[in-house]
Amino acid sequence: MTALQEKPKAVAPVGPPPRRRGKRATALAGTDKLVLGLMLGIPTIVHLMFVWVPTLGSIALSFSRWNGIGGFEDIEWIGVGNYVEIFTEYPRFWPAVQHNLIWLAFLLVVPTCAGLLLAVLLDRELKFSRIYQSALYMPMVLSLALIGFIWQLIYTPDGGLLNSLLGLSDNPVDWIGDSDINLYAVLVAAAWRHTGYIMLLYLAGLKSVDPALKEAAALDGASATQTFFRVTFPVMKPVNIVVAVVTVIEALRAFDIVYVINKGRNGLELLSVLVTDNIIGEASRIGRGSAVAVILLTISLGVIIPYLYQTFSKENRT
């Protein structure tokens, strides 16, 4: 009786499982393909023509001796002769390396510390902080060549602003002409421009720090200084890496400001100036100038490649 009263169980229909609706690829029209091809193709061609072709050409010419006159058949291939000459017999090379190292050390210490200090002060939401940020970042908008022209007027011995402020009008100091101090005078001008950029990077880093970390440190009895150096500053490690990489690149590619002031001579020799002097100087030495450029490129890649490797490996882990 009970068996007859039981309701029959529903039987699942037999058949193929329902297909999952996937994302359908949208076919591009002919006009869209043309536009996409132009948007990708033109920048790629321009990049190859103006970046990679000259780079590979410079690497090849660094193994040659050529004055730029005549055709490619006049190129004399000498192997690593240019590199041997640069490291052993070129008198301007090692002073230029020394000046680049001084440039790097100065930018790593002075503008970095000043930019960090300004960022900490502006992060406290001071009154008119937006105006201060704009004023401090304004030099970064100017090119290094224009910075050189501006600071030439400041450093001019006769009637210059700096000598007037220091009361040295009767016995003026030639800040640019004296080879013992002109490098540091130009470094002050470069730091004036670079500080605003570092300030902006650190200010963005400070805004991204979780306020809960600062509150937890305050509850543990940490002072504001201890909180900054033990909590905030370590959390900004990615920003510190970016600042270091940007500063190294800025120090290696420095050229405009010293070339505007005195063509990079008389104590202002840099590696970038040697490249220009050898390639477009009075006696063109395309091979040696290209070799110096390759050395500068190698040093730059030694900083850029580890940074890119760390950045992309971190993205893959996440």
Task: Provide a brief overview of the structure.
The chain is mainly α and 318 residues long. The chain contains 14 helices and 2 strands.
Walk me through this protein's architecture.
The chain is built from 14 helices and two strands, in the order ααββαααααααααααα. By secondary structure, the chain is mainly α. The chain has a domain at 96-284: MetI-like fold, CATH 1.10.3720.10. A two-stranded antiparallel sheet has the order 1-2. It is globular, with a radius of gyration of 30 Å. The termini are far apart.
Shape: globular
CATH topology of one domain: MetI-like fold
CATH-assigned homologous superfamily of one domain:
MetI-like
Biggest beta sheet summary: 2 strands, antiparallel
By DSSP, the count of extended strands is: 2
Just name the CATH architecture of one domain.
Orthogonal Bundle
Distinct helical segment count: 14
CATH class of one domain: Mainly Alpha
Beta-strand content estimate: under 5%
GO cellular component, one term: plasma membrane
InterPro entries: ABC_transporter_permease (IPR051393), MetI-like (IPR000515), MetI-like_sf (IPR035906)
Protein name: Carbohydrate ABC transporter membrane protein 1 (CUT1 family)
Membrane topology: Multi-pass membrane protein
